Amino acid sequence: MKNKNIAIIGAGLVGSLLAIYLRKRGYQVTLYERRPDMRKVNIPAGRSINLALSDRGWKALRGVGIEEAIRKIGIPMTHRTMHSMDGKITTQPYGKDGQGIYAVSRGILNCTLLDLAEQNGVKIFFDERCTEVVLAKNEMHFENQQTFEKSTAHADFIFGADGAFAATRLQMQLSTAQFNYSQSYLEHGYKELMFTANADGTHRIEKNALHIWPRGGYMLIALPNLDGTFTVTLFFPMKGNPSFESLHSKAEVKKFFSDVFPDAVPLLHDLEEDFFNNPTGSLVTVKCMPWHVGNQLALIGDAAHAIVPFYGQGMNCGFEDCTILNDLLNEHHDDWEKVIPEYERLRKPAADAIGELAVDNFIEMRDLVGQPEFLLRKKIEGWFYEKHPDKWMPLYSMVTFSHIPYNEAQARGNRQNVIMDKIMAMPDIEKKWNSSEVENAILNLLKVNS
Amino acid sequence: MKNKNIAIIGAGLVGSLLAIYLRKRGYQVTLYERRPDMRKVNIPAGRSINLALSDRGWKALRGVGIEEAIRKIGIPMTHRTMHSMDGKITTQPYGKDGQGIYAVSRGILNCTLLDLAEQNGVKIFFDERCTEVVLAKNEMHFENQQTFEKSTAHADFIFGADGAFAATRLQMQLSTAQFNYSQSYLEHGYKELMFTANADGTHRIEKNALHIWPRGGYMLIALPNLDGTFTVTLFFPMKGNPSFESLHSKAEVKKFFSDVFPDAVPLLHDLEEDFFNNPTGSLVTVKCMPWHVGNQLALIGDAAHAIVPFYGQGMNCGFEDCTILNDLLNEHHDDWEKVIPEYERLRKPAADAIGELAVDNFIEMRDLVGQPEFLLRKKIEGWFYEKHPDKWMPLYSMVTFSHIPYNEAQARGNRQNVIMDKIMAMPDIEKKWNSSEVENAILNLLKVNS
Q1: How many domains does chain A have?
Q2: Least C-beta-crowded within 10 Å: which of A77, B35, B224, B352?
């Protein structure tokens, strides 16, 4: 049985992309979005205005024919650039042969997807907040956020693409038996700031890098924008000292930044003003199960699996949900009764894995990338990967530059970690890291562990 | 500052007991209960009509002077009695010197607490469902479940004692920043059944025991009631084979019970009728953090920490919340700004621990208690505990017959487990289990591990 009439709640990145995929398959698709049409209003400052697109995301965009258009507005970042307290700079390539991740404007990407959805015949209603889903009747209730008028709509199938605090998922929590759910916050929050551009619109620091100021318990990062600015994010404890709670005045903020991020201070747009004007964001991981209710409703993207941003995979994972769902619809000839349980079966462990990897990577970014042993470890992995691409792939590459399911990447990464712990314990490893002795040691350990 | 006017949402066991404690301290206390006054209506069948009271619970009842009254209506259970498939019976004492847990009627206990609350001047409103808590205004909204009239109330401090699916906790989830929350279901559910009494009102099987039919992946248990009946509970997978899903007809239920619980079948009140008439219950563990919002609202009992029933500690833990809160009010002279954060700091790790122990104990009850090695292990622990009560206490005794914080009991239990694994690996342990060789081995392992 085909679901002819499909409703998607949430016209963010994943909801809009899903709408295009389903419309192209011939379904009647209606998108409902709580916020106004972002193509007609300004986006408020301070909320993740750029994103890192990588291979899983590109594949999903390729599937609807907009990969090249988006790549033109993306800025490739081929490496991490680390800024130490004393101004010293080190770098670490993300992949091999100049592989990179792309800084892309969330706004432009979302508007492009909305345009494409409409061009393909998707109906979109903005300012419609979903207040309830009555599953027994396949019925959605909305409240218009401009007129406060209430309305009701029906669909053969409903997707919840309404993000980390999804109304659809709350509905499942309240009305579905045996619904497993967790929302887990990091003790850190974030604050968006900005580096200004040069007068001629060029970037004041290296453009093709993701900049990190790792400071152990916290960090500053910067991603390039097309206009020469950088979006800068401080990831910082909510409580304790130092923390968002402990910095009370503009003078304290200025002093703190001058002490720990001295080379960043001259680049920042009005630091003290932005620090207190921009909101402090939270960092939440959401897991739930099941992801669907019968042949009526399914969750997708952040609604099913919100993750923290430290692997740059939140959007990429949501986009991969769409690719895999589309593949399954092909494979099962649009038999939704088969497709939806299979989508859940494949994607739930993948989403759990990237959720965990993203939390792990925070420690890597804010702490390890500042340590020489860590950089050596990554250098050895990169060198061995070049020599034996059939035997080894660094975890970061599996996640970012491959389509290996996240859960398989995680498992393989754990096995590789055990081997690298032993390699790093070899005497004088820093001198002989690219010797045949080390190469053979890794090869032997791979045999033992396989 | 004293909170003069205190509202408690939920007049179940914990809410009613808390009301008495606070009223006795001189506060104005109002209890709001969603259900009708249970003293005036019949309780529907099939929902845990008896409970196992142990030392933590008794202490809390002693504090309000009703320990003896309740003990009179309790039935001591001094041991587990295991029924194997071929009708063989084994037993395992719960503690030493006839220590026991008490089967008590939930209904009688709750009614007694409600009576005592009213006698002490607690105001109680029944049929009032809490629909919202507006924390900014210390305001509660209610909807009467008989008249559907809406009303509003205020209090200086609000307790959420409204159980595993607490409306107060949902309010925190929806409106409190950084609220960590998880609800996690077992893949098993439960069904209540009944053993009939003899014609003269006596029990048809041994009265002073908790009966278990352990069958590996599932189990049946029976707790004695005063009228000679037993409350019988089947803990059983929700899906798979066998499961609640796989037993479709009365004939299938009858055949299944006859095959795996043959000695229980003649004792059961109308099995087939009850099996399909009584609801299938779920088994959920709820964890959250924080447990309080400022000096305005706190969660207590299942609302803060719903656990599965396999350690018989759900009510005991909630009652201990009351004792500890009362102790803290004594210690800090009713300074709520100090007491509430301290209550959370002490009780959160304790509740997490008993939540985990309760899940672990399901495996012990449904599987291990049927195995000779397990019974030997418990026998060795009991024997060594008798000889060296200063050096060893079995985990079950720490949880059930002591006031050691649950988290300390769990940690000490883990250390003892490591030792017992080694003892059980000694050659011929089944022959020499009470020898001085084994005694000295345990003493030495305790030294090494301390």
Answers
A1: 2
A2: B35
Give the integer Cα–Cα distance in Å for B437 and B443: 10
Together in a domain, A336 and A355: yes
Assess A131–B contact: CB distance below 8 Å, yes or no.
Answer: no
Provide the domain limits for residue B377.
371-448
Cα–Cα dist A120/A401, whole Å: 30
The verdict on A185 touching B (C-beta cutoff 8 Å) is yes
Chain A residues in contact with B183 by the CB 8 A cut-off are 173, 179-182
Residue contact A182–B177, C-beta within 8 A:
no
Q: What is the CA radius of gyration of chain A?
A: 23
Q: Which of B360, B385, B405 is the endpoint of a domain? A: B360
pTM: 0.92
Q: How far apart are CA B285 and CA B188, in angstroms?
A: 12
CATH value at residue A351: 3.50.50.60
A180 at B interface, C-beta within 8 A: yes
Do B117 and B20 lie in one domain? The reply is yes
Instruction: For an interface test with A, give the residue of B131, B171, B178, B186 to mutate (most A CBs within 10 A).
Output: B178
φ, ψ (nearest 5 deg) of residue A282: -100, 160
Tell whether A179 is within 8 A of chain B (Cβ). yes
Strands B219-224 and B230-237: antiparallel
Of all residues in chain A, the one with the smallest CA distance to B167 is: A174
State which of A360, A389, A415 marks the end of a domain: A360
